[in-house]
Amino acid sequence: MGTVRYGQSMVMKVVVIGADAAGGSAASQIKRKLRDDVEVTVLEQQQWTSYAACGIPYWIAGDSEGPNGLVARTPEQHRANGLELHTETTATSVDLAAQVVTVEPTGGGEQRQYAYDHLVFTTGAAAIKPPIPGIDLPGISQVHTLDDGLVAIDNLHTNPEDAVVVGAGYVGIEMAEACRLRGLKTTMLDIAPEPLASLDPDMSALVRQALTDGGVTLRSGEAATEFREGAQGRVIEVETEKTTVAADIVFLGVGVRPRTELAAQAGIELGASHGLLTNSRQQVLGYENVWAAGDCVESFDRLTKTPRYVPLGTHANKQGRVVGMNIGRDPAEFAGILGTAITKFLGTEISRTGLLEAEAQRLGFDAVSAKVETLTHAGYYPGAEPMTVKLLGERGTGRLLGGQIVGGAGAGMRIDIVAAALWGDMRVADVLDMDLAYAPPFSGAWDPVQIAARQLVPKL
In the prediction, which pLDDT does 10 show? Predict the structure, then answer.
């Protein structure tokens, strides 16, 4: 097999592996900063670049257009901005000593090499695919890439009636909603005792109720053990540890893992979650000219002061920008994460930030919580809906540690009040004094978050 060597010019050479949120942000920022003084080569396995993977469940539900409608910047647009972008190209090895990346077409073919002065890993995450018999049967799809979305849409064209969602995390919740909006009889399987393990159990129970009220049969603590094939060669049933569930279509949403095999093969040390470890400038630890951002890294948690794997598009875009600014000679730092997240199931909004009770206790915090049931806005104004707010604080210091919200329309985004307070290292009592907006259509005179804070303060 022939090998071609690229990259002999005297300008700075940057190779970016991955062209989604983090990679696209980093590459674009570098080119914008350095212009003709840099050659930016971007390598992407897929045909797509810079797209909103978080929009895939809503595309499948029929609420948004896809796949092109989810693309923020096409390969052609990246190239027009001066990037040397190669799609459907796989990086197969990295020689850190020689500063060379070897690649080949994703389907196989002639190898090429690209020399670099700076290397950026933005390889993202891979959807976890459990080793369950029959998992590759037609009718079963992941919900991670735009190509996965195309497969899912094709499966919907077979006019299924019975859907099974495997996994009850964020993607699983969103896919259960998509199935119900499509009018499918929907069963959700998950090995955890309650859906959304990123909430405390008492808040997860509210999500369970919302799923059940929305027509989902939730089978918690029950793993899929086999996918069975029907006469048409497609999935027809899902066998679990306890029963058999009819399934014309199956969606897998059991989580993701960082795609760091290439970095590990190059000799780079990984973190506890197998993500890349970086400093606040997004430099890979131990290397001045190797950088990483997005779903392949473990991010600095502002509360625990430790690395934590939380793959979200918000972090990816910010970290990519930080990489681009630093390589572009404009110093920047990534300030860290809190684990803030939000989703919904039909009319129920779900959000969280900071620590859970079990996490706080495990980390040695003397944590105490308060939970209140209230309304999304003034009860005398039409349309007020129930919502539950739970706040967590540290006894003694009075410091706010986290929050969770489950409720109707207008509930979920209030988590940003909690996130902002956490970001500023505020005490729970400080939340009571925050000057928050009030008008009857939007809130009561005391915002629901402040009502919860008022209940928590005496316990601290």
Answer: 80
